[in-house]
Amino acid sequence: SGKERMHWENKFHHRQIWAQEVFDRGANGIADEVVEHLKNLGVEEIYISFDIDALDQEYAGATGTPESGGLSPHEPMLIMQTLFENFKITGADMVEIAPQVKSASIKQIEPETTLMVAASLSTFLIQAMGSN
């Protein structure tokens, strides 16, 4: 975005969790912190918006901004599973999937890899919304 992290946190009063924090503290630790925070706020239901470029370009290269050093699909799945176990998921979306994008620096088959990963995460979200 061209802005520092604190710009967005201060402007919108939300907390960002970056990939390195997930690596350092583990997906389960992050999920537990998020659950505790939301419960302290009295939240009972949530909407999940998932930006596919949170994933490493190995898993999601067909996106507007492929990221090296991003998450594997397993980490957000653990976080979303924990959220589902604690809250009603009433809606969700997935953004930044760009099947037409293919970077020469990305070696896996695209857009198939990104679409398969997005389908897997989306399937979980759809099932979670349907079971609440």
Q: Can you put this structure into words, describing what you see?
A:
The chain is mainly α. The protein has five helices and two strands; from the N terminus they run αααβαβα. The protein has helices at 5-12, 19-25, 27-40, 74-86, 112-130; strands spanning 45-51, 88-95. It has a two-stranded parallel ribbon with strand order 1-2. Helix 3 packs parallel to helix 4. The radius of gyration is 15 Å and the shape is globular. The model has no long low-confidence stretch (mean pLDDT 91).
N- to C-terminal distance: 35 Å
Radius of gyration: 15 Å
Average pLDDT figure? 91
Which parts are unreliable, with pLDDT below 50 for 5 consecutive residues or more? none
How would you classify the helix and strand content by structural class? mainly alpha
What is the general shape?
Answer: globular
Q: What does the largest sheet look like?
A: 2 strands, parallel
Strand sequence of the main sheet, in spatial order?
Answer: 1-2
What can be said about this structure in brief?
The chain has 132 residues and is mainly α. 46% of the residues lie in helices and 11% in strands. A two-stranded parallel sheet has the order 1-2.
Could you give the topology of this structure?
Layout: H1 5-12, H2 19-25, H3 27-40, E1 45-51, H4 74-86, E2 88-95, H5 112-130
Helix pairs in contact: 2-3, 3-4, 4-5
List keywords for this structure.
132 residues; single chain; mainly alpha; two-stranded parallel sheet; 5 helices
